[in-house]
Amino acid sequence: MGTLVTLDLPAGSPVADLPWVITIGSIGDEEDWEPVVCGPYERAHALALAQAVVADEDLMAVVEPLLPRPDAESIRDEIELARAAVEAPVDADADAETETAEEYETRRVRPGRPPTEAEVRAGWSRIAARLTTV
Asked: Which parts of the sequence are annotated with region: Disordered (predicted)?
């Protein structure tokens, strides 16, 4: 049985509406091959496809959002935000929350039906529409 890793989003998170990618690779050191990155997908499609692929194989799938940025400057802005989050001073209360957050819960899920090719293509159309109207 494989492993699926993704963000645990709160209900209504705008991140859920972003395009998502799946990175699939080997779990252990026994196999040495480059991970495969697929997408973009809508989040539900990415999760279902990843579950279907790793359900019966010793693989790891990471499902994560893409951050569509139209130019180099906006990419640099994202990099600075990421750096600032790591470098920000942490108070004692926040440090305790970080320790708790680092202890993650593993959830076993039974894979549902993966989306059909037609459903994925319809999702791509919705993603393209969102990306071109921003």
From this structure: 88-120
pLDDT bracket for residue 124 (50, 70, 90): very high
Q: So where are the chain's domains?
A: 3-133
Reduce the secondary structure of the chain to three states and give it as a string.
CCEEEECCCCCCCHHHHCCEEEEEEECCCCCCCCCEEEEEECHHHHHHHHHHHHCCCCEEEEEEECCCCCCHHHHHHHHHHHHHHHHCCCCHHHHHHHHHHHCCCCCCCCCCCCCCHHHHHHHHHHHHHHHHHC
Cα 9 to chain centroid distance, Å, stands at 10
Six-digit token pair at 94? 């926040």
More reliable by pLDDT, 86 or 41: 41
- 36-41/20-26 β-pairing: antiparallel
Express each pLDDT in 26-75 by its tens digit: 987 778 899 999 999 999 999 999 999 999 899 999 999 999 888 999 99
**Backbone angle region of 12, left / alpha / beta, with phi > 0 → left and psi within -120 to 50 → alpha:** left
